[in-house]
Amino acid sequence: MKQPGRSLRWDAAGSRWWWSNSDAAALHAWSETEQATMTCKLPDRAGLIAHCSSGRLLVGLPKRLCLAGPADPQRGAIQLKVQALVAVDAAEPRTGISDGCVDRHGFLVFGTANASEDRRPIGSFYQYSGQHGLRRLALPAVAEASGICFSGDGARMFFADAGGDAILCCDYDAGRASVSRIGIFAQLEKGATARGSVVDQEGCLWNAQAGQVVQYDKGGKVVRRIAIDCATPAFGGARLDQLMAAGPAGLVPLPVKASGHAEALFDDQHLHN
Q1: Given phi > 0 = left and psi -120 to 50 = alpha, else beta, which region is 35?
Q2: Domain layout of the chain by residue ranges
Q3: What local confidence, expressed as pLDDT, does residue 90 receive?
């Protein structure tokens, strides 16, 4: 069965949607002005992608963060050249990068998952930047890090364990890579698993779950459910008022009236490379 795309991101500079494959070593990009989806080959599967201030892509392969591109949409299917930045959990072969996004300060925050059959909670959360390198966040160990996103002011972080039963939140200090007041934002229904999340201009959180996208208000109460199977919803478009999902059959616009925040760019100007 074909899996939904993950790590869906809007590229404002290129007016293009980007997402990765759960089951293939490739990235995809699509724009309303282009007739076909651009496919960019990678050396391995990507658990996350993020856009950089330079125009390049930051890609989270299973055991390393890399810079890639920029890609030329006129070339069709291409092999992206990647440059390794930092190894992640090098001494732990069971884990791989599973989810992440850029915080409001231009730092990447991401997590790992246990890819072995036992699914024990050995995954961690990290922050990465050119200024400070790789720093572990003092968050609970997880089977699979998911749902990482931030409030509009960047002071509140949301995250989840795809093997757990809740969406969690905490206060977040980007400069110190510190977290505090960790608690439950929303309890999931029995059998539900939290995937990717995004926060809108009103402070509502939209989370992808198996077979649906669920909107929660600021207090964690369910507002609505939209039937679609996807891994990550994302806001984009010229006015950031288009909520999109990458389902098994491709991109699907969701019928909602809401606006998102501009996608934060990873600050790659301070990288020593």
Answers
A1: alpha
A2: 6-253
A3: 93
CATH topology of domain 6-253: Neuraminidase (2.120.10)
Q: CA gyration radius for the chain?
A: 17
For residue 130, with 0-12 CB atoms within 10 Å meaning exposed, 13-18 middle and 19 or more buried, which class applies? Answer: middle
Q: Provide the percentage of residues in the chain whose pLDDT is more than 90.
A: 78
Spell out a b/e string for 76-113, using b for 16 or more CB atoms within 10 Å of the CB, else e. Answer: eebebebeebeebbeeeebbbbbbbbbbbbbbbbbbbb
What is d(CA 200, CA 234) in angstroms, rounded to the nearest whole number? 9
CA proximity to 139, closest of 101, 177, 89, 96: 177
* CB of 240 closer than 8 Å to CB of 262: yes
| Sheet with 26-30, edge to edge strand ranges | 6-11, 16-20, 26-30, 38-41, 78-79
3-state secondary structure of 73: helix
Report the pLDDT averaged over residues 27-37.
85
Write down the pTM of the prediction: 0.95
* Beta-carbon contacts of residue 189 (< 8 Å; ≥ 6 apart): none
- Alpha-carbon gap, residue 256 to 33, rounded angstroms: 23
Residue 127 to residue 242: CA distance in whole angstroms: 28
Give buried/exposed letters for 244-270 (b at 16+ CB in 10 A, else e). Answer: bbbbeeebbebebebebbebbbbbbee
Encode pLDDT of 237-267 as tens digits.
999 999 999 888 789 999 999 999 999 999 9
Separation CA 152–CA 173 (nearest Å):
14
Please tell me the distance from the alpha carbon of residue 199 to that of residue 139, in angstroms, as a whole number: 20
Neighbouring residues of 134: CB distance < 8 A, sequence distance ≥ 6:
86, 88, 126, 127, 128
